[in-house]
Amino acid sequence: MTVGRAPARFKRTARRNRRNGDSIPRPPPAAPEEEAGSSVDGLRLPSEPAAILPKDFFLVDSLELAPRLLGKFLRRDDVVLQITEVEAYRPNDSACHGRFGITSRTAPVFGPGGHAYVYLCYGLHTMLNVVADKEGVGAAVLIRSCAPISGLGTIEERRGQKTEKPVLLAGPGKVGQALGITTAWSNHPLYTPGGLEVLDGPAPEKILVGPRVGIQYALPEHITAPWRFAIAGTPWISAPKNTLHPP
Protein backbone atom coordinates (compact mmCIF):
# COMPACT_ATOMS: atom_id res chain seq x y z
CA MET A 1 0.00 0.00 0.00
CA THR A 2 1.47 3.33 -1.00
CA VAL A 3 1.56 6.33 1.25
CA GLY A 4 -0.89 8.07 -1.04
CA ARG A 5 -3.52 5.50 -0.08
CA ALA A 6 -2.90 5.72 3.64
CA PRO A 7 -5.80 6.61 5.98
CA ALA A 8 -6.59 10.31 5.95
CA ARG A 9 -5.44 11.06 9.47
CA PHE A 10 -1.98 9.70 8.74
CA LYS A 11 -1.65 10.96 5.18
CA ARG A 12 1.66 12.62 4.38
CA THR A 13 1.42 15.90 2.49
CA ALA A 14 3.91 18.40 1.13
CA ARG A 15 5.78 20.32 3.82
CA ARG A 16 4.30 23.64 2.73
CA ASN A 17 0.73 22.51 3.29
CA ARG A 18 -1.91 24.92 4.48
CA ARG A 19 -2.19 25.36 8.24
CA ASN A 20 -5.74 24.11 8.37
CA GLY A 21 -5.48 21.27 10.86
CA ASP A 22 -5.22 18.57 8.17
CA SER A 23 -2.61 15.85 8.30
CA ILE A 24 0.94 17.15 8.24
CA PRO A 25 4.24 15.53 7.32
CA ARG A 26 6.88 14.05 9.50
CA PRO A 27 10.02 15.97 8.56
CA PRO A 28 11.63 15.70 6.14
CA PRO A 29 8.88 14.84 3.61
CA ALA A 30 9.37 11.61 1.73
CA ALA A 31 8.81 10.74 -1.89
CA PRO A 32 5.09 10.14 -2.52
CA GLU A 33 5.63 6.54 -3.58
CA GLU A 34 7.35 5.53 -0.34
CA GLU A 35 5.80 2.39 1.12
CA ALA A 36 3.81 2.54 4.33
CA GLY A 37 5.68 0.97 7.20
CA SER A 38 9.03 2.37 6.00
CA SER A 39 11.33 4.60 8.03
CA VAL A 40 11.65 8.35 7.44
CA ASP A 41 14.01 10.37 9.63
CA GLY A 42 13.74 7.77 12.39
CA LEU A 43 9.91 7.70 12.29
CA ARG A 44 7.89 4.96 10.63
CA LEU A 45 4.65 5.23 8.72
CA PRO A 46 1.72 3.06 9.85
CA SER A 47 0.86 0.35 7.33
CA GLU A 48 -2.83 0.33 8.28
CA PRO A 49 -5.29 2.28 10.44
CA ALA A 50 -4.07 2.24 14.02
CA ALA A 51 -6.10 0.43 16.67
CA ILE A 52 -6.41 1.47 20.31
CA LEU A 53 -3.96 -0.52 22.40
CA PRO A 54 -5.57 -3.00 24.84
CA LYS A 55 -5.27 -2.70 28.60
CA ASP A 56 -2.91 -5.70 28.80
CA PHE A 57 -0.31 -3.79 26.79
CA PHE A 58 0.30 -1.50 29.76
CA LEU A 59 0.39 -4.13 32.53
CA VAL A 60 4.18 -4.53 32.50
CA ASP A 61 7.13 -2.96 34.33
CA SER A 62 7.51 0.70 33.37
CA LEU A 63 11.06 -0.02 32.20
CA GLU A 64 9.61 -2.45 29.67
CA LEU A 65 6.66 -0.27 28.75
CA ALA A 66 8.71 2.88 28.09
CA PRO A 67 10.56 1.73 24.94
CA ARG A 68 7.44 -0.09 23.74
CA LEU A 69 5.57 3.23 23.68
CA LEU A 70 8.02 4.73 21.17
CA GLY A 71 6.33 5.00 17.80
CA LYS A 72 2.84 4.65 19.27
CA PHE A 73 0.24 7.39 18.78
CA LEU A 74 -1.67 9.67 21.13
CA ARG A 75 -5.04 10.86 19.86
CA ARG A 76 -7.42 13.46 21.22
CA ASP A 77 -10.04 14.94 18.92
CA ASP A 78 -8.36 15.96 15.66
CA VAL A 79 -4.85 15.88 17.14
CA VAL A 80 -2.67 12.80 16.61
CA LEU A 81 0.91 12.73 17.91
CA GLN A 82 3.56 10.05 17.53
CA ILE A 83 5.53 9.35 20.71
CA THR A 84 9.25 9.95 20.14
CA GLU A 85 10.74 10.23 23.65
CA VAL A 86 9.80 8.83 27.06
CA GLU A 87 11.15 8.25 30.57
CA ALA A 88 10.44 5.31 32.89
CA TYR A 89 9.66 5.84 36.59
CA ARG A 90 9.62 2.73 38.75
CA PRO A 91 8.64 1.56 42.26
CA ASN A 92 11.33 2.36 44.85
CA ASP A 93 12.67 4.97 42.43
CA SER A 94 13.74 8.13 44.26
CA ALA A 95 12.72 10.19 41.23
CA CYS A 96 9.21 8.70 41.01
CA HIS A 97 6.21 10.46 42.52
CA GLY A 98 5.29 7.12 44.04
CA ARG A 99 8.02 7.73 46.63
CA PHE A 100 5.56 10.01 48.44
CA GLY A 101 3.06 7.19 48.85
CA ILE A 102 -0.60 7.52 47.97
CA THR A 103 -1.78 11.13 48.24
CA SER A 104 -4.54 13.06 46.50
CA ARG A 105 -1.99 14.06 43.86
CA THR A 106 -0.17 10.75 43.38
CA ALA A 107 -3.11 8.34 43.73
CA PRO A 108 -3.49 7.92 39.94
CA VAL A 109 0.08 6.61 39.57
CA PHE A 110 -0.89 3.72 41.87
CA GLY A 111 -3.86 2.87 39.69
CA PRO A 112 -3.96 0.11 37.07
CA GLY A 113 -1.75 0.29 34.00
CA GLY A 114 -3.14 2.04 30.97
CA HIS A 115 -4.55 5.04 32.82
CA ALA A 116 -3.27 8.60 32.57
CA TYR A 117 -1.39 10.31 35.37
CA VAL A 118 -1.32 14.07 34.77
CA TYR A 119 0.37 16.56 37.06
CA LEU A 120 1.54 20.17 37.00
CA CYS A 121 5.27 20.88 36.98
CA TYR A 122 6.15 24.17 38.70
CA GLY A 123 2.42 24.87 38.68
CA LEU A 124 2.61 25.64 34.94
CA HIS A 125 3.41 22.66 32.72
CA THR A 126 0.94 19.80 32.27
CA MET A 127 2.86 16.52 32.24
CA LEU A 128 1.27 13.40 30.73
CA ASN A 129 2.31 10.02 32.12
CA VAL A 130 1.08 6.56 31.18
CA VAL A 131 0.59 4.41 34.29
CA ALA A 132 2.37 1.06 34.08
CA ASP A 133 2.03 -2.33 35.72
CA LYS A 134 -0.66 -3.63 38.04
CA GLU A 135 -2.76 -1.57 40.42
CA GLY A 136 -0.88 -0.59 43.57
CA VAL A 137 2.62 -0.77 42.05
CA GLY A 138 3.14 2.98 41.60
CA ALA A 139 4.99 3.25 38.27
CA ALA A 140 4.54 5.30 35.12
CA VAL A 141 6.11 6.46 31.86
CA LEU A 142 6.48 10.19 31.20
CA ILE A 143 5.81 11.28 27.61
CA ARG A 144 8.69 13.69 26.95
CA SER A 145 8.33 14.48 23.23
CA CYS A 146 6.19 13.73 20.21
CA ALA A 147 6.00 14.40 16.48
CA PRO A 148 2.80 15.88 14.99
CA ILE A 149 0.80 13.62 12.70
CA SER A 150 -2.47 15.52 12.30
CA GLY A 151 -4.27 18.53 13.69
CA LEU A 152 -1.42 21.01 13.21
CA GLY A 153 -3.75 23.99 13.37
CA THR A 154 -5.16 22.87 16.72
CA ILE A 155 -1.67 22.10 18.06
CA GLU A 156 -0.38 25.53 17.09
CA GLU A 157 -3.40 27.26 18.59
CA ARG A 158 -3.04 25.43 21.90
CA ARG A 159 0.71 26.01 21.96
CA GLY A 160 0.41 29.64 20.90
CA GLN A 161 3.19 29.04 18.39
CA LYS A 162 3.08 28.70 14.60
CA THR A 163 5.86 26.37 13.49
CA GLU A 164 6.41 22.90 12.09
CA LYS A 165 9.82 22.62 13.77
CA PRO A 166 10.55 20.23 16.68
CA VAL A 167 10.39 23.10 19.19
CA LEU A 168 6.61 22.72 18.88
CA LEU A 169 6.52 19.37 20.73
CA ALA A 170 10.02 18.75 22.13
CA GLY A 171 9.33 18.70 25.87
CA PRO A 172 6.70 17.12 28.14
CA GLY A 173 4.93 20.38 28.97
CA LYS A 174 4.54 21.09 25.26
CA VAL A 175 2.98 17.68 24.67
CA GLY A 176 0.41 18.24 27.42
CA GLN A 177 -0.39 21.69 26.07
CA ALA A 178 -0.74 20.42 22.48
CA LEU A 179 -3.21 17.78 23.64
CA GLY A 180 -5.18 20.36 25.59
CA ILE A 181 -5.27 18.29 28.79
CA THR A 182 -5.37 19.27 32.45
CA THR A 183 -4.92 17.38 35.70
CA ALA A 184 -8.61 16.46 35.40
CA TRP A 185 -7.47 13.82 32.88
CA SER A 186 -5.69 11.82 35.59
CA ASN A 187 -7.20 8.33 35.91
CA HIS A 188 -8.57 8.50 32.36
CA PRO A 189 -8.31 5.03 30.72
CA LEU A 190 -6.19 5.37 27.60
CA TYR A 191 -7.40 2.05 26.17
CA THR A 192 -11.06 3.01 25.73
CA PRO A 193 -12.53 4.88 22.74
CA GLY A 194 -13.11 8.60 23.15
CA GLY A 195 -11.25 11.33 24.95
CA LEU A 196 -7.52 10.60 25.05
CA GLU A 197 -6.33 7.33 23.48
CA VAL A 198 -3.07 5.47 22.88
CA LEU A 199 -3.03 3.86 19.44
CA ASP A 200 -0.80 1.15 18.08
CA GLY A 201 2.07 2.19 15.83
CA PRO A 202 5.20 0.75 14.24
CA ALA A 203 8.18 0.15 16.48
CA PRO A 204 11.24 2.28 15.66
CA GLU A 205 14.15 0.63 13.89
CA LYS A 206 16.67 2.04 16.36
CA ILE A 207 16.43 3.74 19.74
CA LEU A 208 18.64 5.82 22.01
CA VAL A 209 18.92 5.62 25.79
CA GLY A 210 20.28 7.89 28.49
CA PRO A 211 19.73 9.31 31.97
CA ARG A 212 16.49 11.08 32.77
CA VAL A 213 16.22 14.86 32.79
CA GLY A 214 15.82 17.21 35.77
CA ILE A 215 16.01 14.70 38.64
CA GLN A 216 19.03 16.03 40.53
CA TYR A 217 17.15 15.51 43.78
CA ALA A 218 17.19 11.71 43.31
CA LEU A 219 19.72 9.19 44.59
CA PRO A 220 22.93 8.91 42.51
CA GLU A 221 22.04 5.49 41.13
CA HIS A 222 18.71 6.81 39.91
CA ILE A 223 20.17 10.01 38.46
CA THR A 224 22.48 7.99 36.21
CA ALA A 225 20.07 5.14 35.39
CA PRO A 226 19.55 4.96 31.58
CA TRP A 227 15.76 5.08 31.79
CA ARG A 228 15.19 7.73 29.13
CA PHE A 229 14.36 6.37 25.66
CA ALA A 230 14.07 8.10 22.28
CA ILE A 231 13.69 7.19 18.63
CA ALA A 232 17.07 7.38 16.91
CA GLY A 233 17.41 9.67 13.91
CA THR A 234 14.47 11.97 14.59
CA PRO A 235 14.82 15.65 15.53
CA TRP A 236 11.59 15.47 17.55
CA ILE A 237 13.27 14.96 20.93
CA SER A 238 14.00 17.34 23.77
CA ALA A 239 17.25 18.65 25.22
CA PRO A 240 19.76 17.55 26.26
CA LYS A 241 20.40 15.32 23.27
CA ASN A 242 24.08 14.72 23.92
CA THR A 243 23.30 12.39 26.85
CA LEU A 244 21.48 9.95 24.57
CA HIS A 245 23.36 7.07 22.95
CA PRO A 246 22.69 3.65 21.41
CA PRO A 247 21.86 0.97 24.00
Automatic annotation (TrEMBL):
GO biological process: base-excision repair
Keywords: DNA damage, DNA repair, Hydrolase
Basic residues biased stretches: 8-18
The organism's place on the tree of life at top rank: Eukaryota
Transmembrane segments: none
EC code(s) of this entry: 3.2.2.21
Gene3D superfamilies listed in its UniProt record: Methylpurine-DNA glycosylase (MPG)
Catalytic activity: Hydrolysis of alkylated DNA, releasing 3-methyladenine, 3-methylguanine, 7-methylguanine and 7-methyladenine
Chain intervals for the UniProt region annotation (Disordered): 1-41
Enzyme class label: hydrolase
Single GO MF descriptor: alkylbase DNA N-glycosylase activity
Function (record text): Hydrolysis of the deoxyribose N-glycosidic bond to excise 3-methyladenine, and 7-methylguanine from the damaged DNA polymer formed by alkylation lesions.
Family per record: Belongs to the DNA glycosylase MPG family.
Protein name, UniProt field: DNA-3-methyladenine glycosylase II
Record organism: Ensete ventricosum (Abyssinian banana)
Lineage: Eukaryota, Viridiplantae, Streptophyta, Embryophyta, Tracheophyta
